[in-house]
Write a structure and sequence with these properties.
nine-stranded parallel β-sheet; 9 strands; alpha/beta
């Protein structure tokens, strides 16, 4: 029997080009991984009921469902449709027993240059779905994205902004902190401490130099410039002692390799470079 790998979750985006949902769960379990985080398109392709059964039969924990969000729209109809879609995402997360629903909140509406208004739409959208999430028992995890994505994917770009939004929205809203997006922030340590028990997820990968594609060229831990062990220590100082979740988008590297080798490398690098050091 394979020894469980304590504290490590695999975001299934890391092997999305090689494995289906079912194959990914089986492949992770075969190497001792007991936690996974699927994406909604993977769940849709497999079928929600089938995914629920697969998770239960394998005895794995779903650390998050990716993703809800994308609240800003140019029209009231578009914003209302986004709210309904996020409610469906909440229901899927509840069915899977997910630790949280990760929110990539969305960028500027088409034709807009008003990022302040976009952020207000994000606040209003989360506020609109929050009663549904609370009733379903699904925490909402705002994921701040690197500023390079401010226009098209997320107008929430720092932990400080995420913390401010959590302050405004209240219980049931927390943060998914991905080192790819926040490692550069000079206020990172202080904002992690401020976040405290709002921290719902710690996503790991690495920032390559050079990065050839802003979306699909994330690095395996240890291959880039992020001080993962120090950041882990800051998470722990903030009171976070839960999983680290590998999430790697890598069109020309890791998505082209045998998936079992990718998982094995994730495990080895997690053990080698991701533990907190005093």
């Amino acid at each position: 029997m394979t020894e469980p790998v304590e504290g490590l979750s695999i975001n299934l985006a890391t092997v999305r080009k090689q494995w289906t949902f079912a194959e990914a769960v089986d492949g992770c379990v075969a190497q001792g991984i007991t936690m996974v985080a699927p994406w909604r398109d993977q769940v849709e392709a497999q079928g929600l009921k089938s995914c629920v059964k697969i998770v239960a039969d394998a005895g794995v924990r779903v650390t998050g469902l990716c993703r809800g969000g994308f609240f800003p729209h140019a029209t009231a109809e578009g914003r209302a449709a986004a709210i309904e879609e996020n409610k469906r995402a909440i229901d899927e997360a509840a069915a899977l027993g997910a630790h949280c629903l990760v929110l990539v909140v969305g960028g500027l509406p088409e034709g807009s240059r008003d990022i302040v208004a976009a952020r207000q739409m994000v606040h209003d959208g989360i506020a609109a779905i929050l009663p549904h999430a609370r009733a379903a028992g699904v925490p909402l995890a705002i994921e701040p994205l690197h500023p390079q994505y401010a226009a098209d994917r997320s107008c929430v770009n720092t932990l400080a902004q995420s913390n401010d939004m959590c302050d405004a929205l209240g219980p049931g809203v927390g943060i998914a902190a991905d080192v790819y997006h926040i490692w550069w922030d000079p206020d990172l340590e202080a904002q992690l401490l401020r976040a405290g028990d709002r921290l719902l997820a710690h996503h790991i990968c690495d920032w390559l130099v050079p990065t050839t594609d802003p979306l699909n060229d994330r690095g395996m831990m240890g291959d880039g410039v992020v001080d993962l062990s120090t950041i882990r220590r800051w998470f722990e100082a903030a009171g976070y002692d839960d999983f680290q979740e590998v999430e790697i988008f890598s069109a020309n590297n890791w998505w082209t390799k045998p998936p079992q080798d990718v998982i094995a490398t994730c495990i080895a690098r997690y053990r080698a470079v991701c533990a907190a050091r005093a």
